[in-house]
Amino acid sequence: MSFSSLPGSSSSSSHPLVPYGWDADWEAEFAPYDSEGLLAGRVIRVDRGQCDVVTSGGVLRADTAFVTPHDPMRVVCTGDWVAVEPAGDPRYVRTYLPRRSAFVRSTSSKRSEGQILAANVDHAVVAVSLAVELDLGRVERFLALAWESGAQPVVVLTKADLVPDATTLSYLVQDVETAAPGVPVLSVSSSLGEGLDVLAAVLSGGTSVLLGQSGAGKSTLANALLGEDVMKVHATRDVDGKGRHTTTTRNLLALPGGGVLIDTPGLRGVGLWDAETGVNQVFSEIEALAAECRFHDCAHTSEPGCAVIAALDTGELPERRLDSYRKLLRENQRIVAKTDARLRAEIRRDWKRKGAEGKAAMEAKRGQWG
Predict the structure, then answer these.
(1) For residue range 325-351, what is the model confidence (pLDDT) as tens digits?
(2) Which CATH number among 3.40.50.300, 2.60.40.3550, 2.40.50.140, 3.50.50.60 corresponds to the domain 3-98?
(3) What is the 3-state secondary structure (H, E, C) of 343-370?
């Protein structure tokens, strides 16, 4: 049965799943499973091998073991559109539809695995608390993953009411804008309701995932956007502004003004996962400068005609930005090298070349001394 033939429904635009992001393209993707009698639904929560799925008939519980349970990059996650068995005990998710985007970070595991935090996301909202000192390097790290996911990043500076004056707030916003080229930066106060209308308008056009450290005010912000206390909120510690993990699972919720929000647990570790494109996007001004270097393989250290170093010398490029850029690229290279044998070999050759150059330089100095 197609969705256009549902009682009281003339097209996919009036389908009950539209508030959760359903559209004509998802309908077309699901058509083969519809003909098999499976139900379409969106995963709103995953917990220990089972998930809650919202369907046209309401929310049901389904088992995810049928969908490649041992591959961390292919497990069902919050935000997936899935095909679910209409009956059974337990009933199973048979498959998920191809993802339009996926927010992935590396796990703390030594096995170098990726962890999908959310799927089919249009906006990645990075919540940053103004109650503590800004960590621009962490903001850049979140943004690299956001750009790599295929979503549009948005930085939300929370707890703006704790900033002493408007001038200071303006400077803080400018600092973050410098670290986030091409990214909207909004300041909000969930407790006072300031800035929420602008944010709600931005998020009304699709699915958004809410990211940030524990204590960044994500749950309070989610409640403010939802207009009710859906998410539990715990007070942060005065000593460092950090909070406990009030959100322990990823939850997908329909916003009253349109759009869908996925709230996530606070992230202590935000490791990159094959995010070179995202890193380059975050540091787009460095990439633009690099294109003007004399040598195409310039390392931006001491090479003649290096546009990056020249910008550093004139103050056009802050040294902090270049250090952060280099750090994230090195980290990403290490992650990719764990699963890419050819890249590992290239890194070893580079190490050997640099070692040989260093040895030759030392021998030349010894010759001069002798």
Answers:
(1) 999 988 887 766 666 445 445 545 554
(2) 2.40.50.140
(3) HHHHHHHHHHHHHHHHHHHHHHHHHHHC
